[in-house]
Design brief:
The complex is a heterodimer of chains A (149) and B (520).
Chain A: H1 6-19, H2 24-35, H3 43-50, H4 54-63, E1 75-80, H5 83-86, H6 90-99, E2 108-113, E3 125-127, E4 130-132, H7 137-147
Parallel strand pairs in A: 1-2
Antiparallel strand pairs in A: 1-3, 3-4
Chain B: E1 8-10, H1 15-19, H2 22-35, E2 41-43, E3 57-61, E4 64-68, H3 73-81, E5 101-104, H4 109-112, H5 130-135, H6 140-146, H7 150-160, H8 172-181, E6 188-193, H9 202-209, H10 211-225, E7 229-234, H11 239-254, E8 270-275, H12 285-292, E9 316-320, H13 321-325, H14 327-331, H15 336-339, E10 342-343, E11 346-347, E12 349-356, E13 362-367, H16 372-380, E14 389-394, E15 400-402, H17 413-418, E16 427-432, H18 437-451, H19 457-471, H20 476-489, H21 493-497, H22 499-508
Parallel strand pairs in B: 1-2, 6-7, 6-9, 7-8, 12-16
Antiparallel strand pairs in B: 1-3, 3-4, 4-5, 10-11, 12-13, 14-15, 14-16
Helix pairs in contact in B: 2-3, 6-10, 7-8, 9-10, 9-11, 18-19, 18-22, 19-20, 20-22
The chains are: A alpha+beta (149), B alpha/beta (520).
Bound molecules: flavin mononucleotide, iron/sulfur cluster and FE2/S2 (inorganic) cluster (FES).
């Protein structure tokens, strides 16, 4: 992988987190915020820095949905599938995605999320850090069309 | 008194408003005003909780704020074309200025009929302006507290009857006392802002709309219990709340509301924001503490209680956002004012959150004691789809599905427990007659499969078995047996309460569970 600033920048970030007494979950959060994922190649270094075994670090990473080890695509769209959005057609929205092949666009990743706190105006989704509410199939198509420009 | 000058315009920066296009309205306003050479001041306030009216636009006039509902850039241009900013308004025709006009915000029945104690400022002020916060009563509670004995504050909290708003409704006074009585020099205040329950957004709304309230409340809790360090554990699904809290904490530190010798007292208190990583179970308090310590969010067995051995083994007062934000209201007149609201052992107010398929969805803060039907009829006013209401899920994903005939139950913690349900964090999700309760029961199991921390067998295996069963043979005798094992043998309420949505769905909607209703 090629990183902004190179692998040493990331290692410095981890070292600083350790020196700053930040817990492991905090350091992992920083990595995800900055790079979108945690490269598996970094796990031995993280384990070393935190004086943990590789298995322990992997155990923490795998527990949390946000701590992914694969790089995200340019557009990550997560559609809420929890109850309040179900009551307004979230399941249909997801089915729509699959039926018209929206799930296999080159640079778009479509996933699910459980509640965005927009339960009074569902169905809701989050596109990278942008929130959308009362999403219809047409609105979703438009959001995806914008990503293909 | 008008806090803001005439022609100040308010467009919420709240997540729900933004998700419905508030930023586009704000941009259009600035552009158009510039073009027309109108001098306006724009404030990105929080939401008033009328999510049905977002993006709500308000204009300060000399007679109060005028509200416009569901605005968009086109409506905005129409509004400006009326010359609204160029002349003093004739209020007798205010409603006729534009069809989107709701009249004066203060007169809107949907807001007027609420009892805003905790949410008294939310949506009114600029969330990041400490002066506005103070003008509307902010910081007076902390200043008062710092002049009192910690014990007197704890007595007032106990007298107010405040109970935990995160779900378990445990009396706050007892918890504060337990932490205060621990002799450790190092104690923590932890704010549970993981708000994972579907149908709930009260925590988000107040953190985005009145963040200094949370900071002030945590400082009071710290002073009363002898803790000098606070953490806010915020879920990562709330990116805007994260930005606002980040800024609010920084401002509070600059203005000496946090840090050493806060507000000139001898008390030191600071807060750190910690962002979660997408695990529902981390809302459970011990799992949250594990996560804050850097570990997998596996639930710890109790005892020891977090109040005695919590974060890093130290005494920890862990509270939901709304429990903490209710502290200043609860402390008014040493708890007497708050305790006078509500009924039985459910005292004070609760911000109920109307969600799902409901026409006037949003946050309704009411004293306990009204019926669920009153809340739905008076405020919700029917389904959004216009079809008949069939089921209401109250209390989040671990809450019961209730049919129409159960809606006369009074909003009181114990009354809901008595019917095998719970109020939880106050989320109320409405479904119309297209809902299939077999599908919902199956989802309850599926949610537990996905979100279980995996520590104990009844939850980890039971939920999977339940899901398989409701997806294939629909053997309700076996499902009931699984529910019994999960309820009695799970370490925490994730496994222990998943039977609630499942059983209520089967009990109240048996017609959905015939084998012919099998859905692939
Ligand atoms: C599975 C599960 C999830 C929970 N999620 C939350 C949550 O998101 N927010 C919250 O405040 N409490 C949540 N709780 C309740 C907490 O465990 C705890 O009771 C609460 O933080 C205590 O604060 P309170 O006394 O102010 O309610 C959850 C409990 C369980 C069992
Ligand atoms: S009930 Fe489920 S979530 Fe709770 S401790 Fe057991 S496995 Fe973990
Ligand atoms: S349930 Fe979808 S946003 Fe809350």
């Amino acid at each position: 992988m090629h990183y902004l600033g190179g692998i040493n920048t990331i290692k410095t970030l981890i070292k600083l987190a350790v020196e700053d007494n930040q817990v492991l979950t905090s350091a992992l959060r920083q990595l995800v915020d900055k790079y979108g994922f945690i490269d598996s190649e970094l796990i031995p270094f993280i384990a070393d820095s935190y004086n943990l075994s590789k298995a322990e670090v992997l155990g923490v990473i795998s527990f949390y949905e946000d701590f992914r080890t694969t790089p995200p695509l340019a557009h990550v769209i997560r559609i809420c599938q929890a109850e309040a959005c179900q009551a307004l057609g979230a399941t249909t929205l997801m089915a729509h995605c699959k039926s018209v092949g929206l799930t296999n666009k080159q640079n778009v990743e479509i996933g699910t999320v459980s509640c965005l706190g927009l339960c009074a105006c569902g169905p809701a989704l989050i596109h990278n850090e942008n929130l959308h509410a009362r999403v219809t199939s047409a609105k979703l198509d438009e959001i995806i069309r914008q990503t293909q420009k | 008194m008008n806090l803001y000058e005439t022609y100040t315009v308010f467009i919420p920066g709240d997540s729900a408003a933004v998700a419905l296009g508030a930023n586009l309205v704000a941009e259009a306003l600035l552009q158009e005003a510039n073009k027309r050479c109108i001098d306006i001041r724009l404030i990105r306030n929080g939401s008033r909780g009328m999510i049905w009216a977002e993006p709500l636009l308000e204009i300060q006039t000399s007679a109060g704020r005028l509200a416009f509902a569901c605005t968009n850039p086109e409506i905005l241009v129409e509004l400006l074309d009326t010359g609204i900013f160029e002349r003093e308004l004739d209020m007798s025709v205010a409603e006729r200025i534009h069809p989107s006009c709701l009249g004066f915000t203060e007169d809107i029945p949907w807001l007027k009929n609420q009892n805003r104690q905790t949410f008294s400022r939310c949506g009114i002020i600029n969330p990041l302006c400490l002066d506005d916060y103070q003008t509307l009563g902010g910081l007076s509670s902390l200043k008062n507290a710092l002049e009192q004995q910690p014990n007197d504050i704890i007595d007032a909290i106990a007298a107010s009857g405040l109970r935990g708003r995160g779900g378990a409704a445990f009396p706050a006074g007892i918890k504060w006392k337990t932490v205060a009585e621990c002799s450790s020099p190092c104690k923590y205040i932890v704010c549970n802002a993981d708000e994972g329950d579907s149908g709930t957004y009260a925590d988000r709304l107040i953190m985005e709309g009145d963040p200094f309230l949370l900071i002030e409340s945590m400082a009071i809790a710290g002073y009363a219990t002898g803790a000098n360090k606070g953490y806010i554990y915020l879920r990562s699904e709330y990116p805007l709340a994260r930005q606002i809290l980040d800024q609010a904490i920084r401002i509070a530190q600059q203005k000496n509301l946090l840090g050493d010798s806060i507000l000139g007292s001898e008390f030191n208190f600071d807060i750190q924001l910690f962002v979660g990583a997408g695990a529902y179970i981390c809302g459970e308090e011990t799992s949250l503490l594990q996560s804050l310590e850097g570990k997998r969010g596996e639930v710890r067995s109790k005892p020891p209680l977090p109040a005695q051995e919590g974060l890093f083994g130290q005494p920890t007062l862990i509270h939901n956002v709304i429990s903490l934000c209710s502290v200043p209201a609860a402390l008014v007149s040493s708890g007497q004012h708050y305790a006078a609201l509500g009924i039985n052992r459910s005292l004070g107010t609760l911000p109920f959150q109307l969600s799902g398929n409901i026409k006037y969805a949003g946050l309704v803060e009411l004293a306990f004691g009204h019926s669920l039907r009153y809340l739905l009829d008076q405020f919700g006013q029917g389904t959004l789809s216009g079809k008949p209401l069939r089921a209401v899920q109250i209390g989040g994903p671990l809450g019961a599905y209730l049919p129409d005939r159960m809606l006369d139950t009074n909003l009181d913690y114990e009354e809901f427990i008595a019917i095998g349900a719970g109020i939880g964090h106050g989320g109320i999700v409405v479904f119309d007659d297209t809902v299939n309760l077999q599908v919902q029961a199956r989802y309850a199991f599926q949610f537990c499969v996905e979100e279980s921390c995996g520590k104990c067998t009844p939850c980890r295996i039971g939920a999977k078995r339940g899901l398989d069963n409701l997806s294939t043979s629909n053997d309700l005798v076996l499902v009931e047996a699984l529910c019994e094992v999960m309820e009695s043998g799970s370490l925490c309420a994730m496994g222990g309460m998943t039977p609630i949505p499942v059983r209520s769905a089967i009990h109240y909607f048996p017609e959905d569970f015939t084998p012919t209703e099998l859905v692939s």
